[in-house]
Write a structure and sequence with these properties.
Aminopeptidase; 7 helices; binds zinc ion; 6-stranded mixed β-sheet; 207 residues
Length: 207
């Protein structure tokens, strides 16, 4: 009887251990978030009158950085000021960060001035990227109520060359008057940063 109950105990322990191991290997675990503010320096990105993408992207990146660090999450910024960083340098920073996920922040433009809304691109090289992109897009839709342009696969250098879960988020169209008004509002940029942080936290918990 004693032996049977001991065996049962050991079996349960082994089962618990194997479940924990399975969870650990399938979990979307990462130790750092690489925050990539698009463009910088002579590369101003999209612009409209005197509003440039490089400034707005850096502002969202800083807000996201603050938010994540307040949650105890380690971060690395590919740039923390207005300077040029090449696309391959950005990927190198991402890979050097080790066990990380990569979030690139951009503002959009289109010839057609009526184009507006938010969209998230993902890298097809990493199986978790699409899931992260979906979480980012839905958190951002929830926070901003912007037009949903969807989650898409793209071959942008910072995504296609990245081995880690990597996404690129387009915050708003600078070529659309109502989107531009939102982009210029610090509250909107804060909402985007909070949505990105929410998605990161959800992604880590999702396994
Ligand atoms: Zn851009």
């Amino acid at each position: 009887m004693m032996l049977q109950s001991r065996i049962r105990q050991i079996t349960q322990t082994l089962l618990a251990l194997s479940c924990a191991l399975q969870a650990a290997t399938s979990a979307a675990d990462f130790s750092r978030v690489v925050i990539d503010a698009g463009h910088g320096g002579h590369d101003r990105g999209a612009g409209f009158s005197h509003t440039y993408e490089k400034h707005l992207a850096l502002d969202v990146a800083r807000r996201l950085d603050l938010y994540l660090r307040s949650q105890g999450i380690n971060t690395t910024l590919t740039r923390d000021r207005d300077k040029f960083v090449s696309l391959s340098q950005r990927v190198a920073i991402s890979h050097a960060a080790g066990d990380a996920i990569f979030i690139s922040i951009h503002f959009n433009y289109a010839r057609r001035r009526s184009a507006l809304g938010i969209e998230t691109f993902y890298n097809a090289r990493n199986a978790n990227s699409r899931r992260l992109a979906q979480m980012v897009q839905s958190a951002a839709l929830y926070k901003t109520r912007s037009r949903n342009r969807g989650v898409k696969h793209a071959r942008f250098h910072v995504l296609s060359q990245n081995r880690q879960p990597a996404i690129l988020f387009e915050c708003a169209f600078l070529t659309n008057s109502s989107d531009r008004r939102r982009a210029l509002d610090p509250l909107y940029r804060q909402r985007i940063a909070e949505a990105l942080a929410m998605a990161v936290i959800k992604f880590r918990a999702s396994g």
